[in-house]
Amino acid sequence: METWTPENLLASGRSFMDSRVLLTAVELDLFSLLDGSEMTLEEVIVEGGLSSRGAAILLDGLAALGLLEKRGGRYAVAPAALPLSSRHPQSVLPMMRHTASLWHRWSELTAIVRTGKGSERPAGAFDDPQELEAFIGAMHVVGREAAAHIARVSRADAFRSLLDVGGATGTYAEAFLREYPAMKATVFDRPPVIEMARRRLEPLDIWPRVTLAAGDFYRDYLPGGHDLVLLSAIIHQNSPEQNVDLYRKCFDALVPGGRILIRDHVLSADRTQPASGALFALNMLACTNGGNCYTLADITETLERAGFARVALLQDGDRMDGLVEAFKP
What we know:
three-stranded antiparallel beta sheet, 13 helices, Arc Repressor Mutant, subunit A, alpha/beta, single chain, globular, Rossmann fold, 2 domains
């Protein structure tokens, strides 16, 4: 835990400045513009449709932060910042655009704390199909390593049929199938996302072991007959009552003796650790009308209300990698 002094209190209050410089460059798509070429200030002004004063100060600020390189009056993307270009094969630009949208919600946090009401529309619920596809693709890029780790520590050797609820393009389902060769998996998500999953998974060697199912877990029942259900980064967007409803659907989708796995932030009993989880709870305050991050006791209580037993924490973590299991009697 940081020891606060007047100096670092002031520094923390100003830390939004670096973030805002980066997010403005993302919103202007400057990293894509400069990817693969060095450009003069005048070229950036013309190509980016920017003012001369604004562009000059912003580009120099980005160079000061190490995100751009400035040589002989020309600007280029710093190698470490290339994933912020739409041209990069592992671009995280859609995720950063999502972060830029969060900025606007967080700017209303004072009013939200007063009222307790965040957004009615979940963050990431894109209306533009291209934005949705880019965002879901970026989620796969940033989630692959975490998925492989979660699959390993889940100790799921005895399980044969996984249901990945809200599974996007099957990043976690793929990781489980690669870790457990005898397993099959069903990926359940909204219809547009399921089509993205089909395009990503169909060329892979695991495809014969994959079933895709389209639906909305808030409104629809889940496909049944599974012995393992995964809820990966789902429960934080829900209120406790919404989670009980979802757990009951998962319960019905499991065979007797089946297991549910929940990956999410798991807060300490006093709700202050991990710090990343306590701050992510604020993100849910701003971006949902009922979401939160939960303690093990919270998760246990709602799982038991849905009929589950033998709730246990398999892994603690500070990167939304807490892992909780429970069983259907």
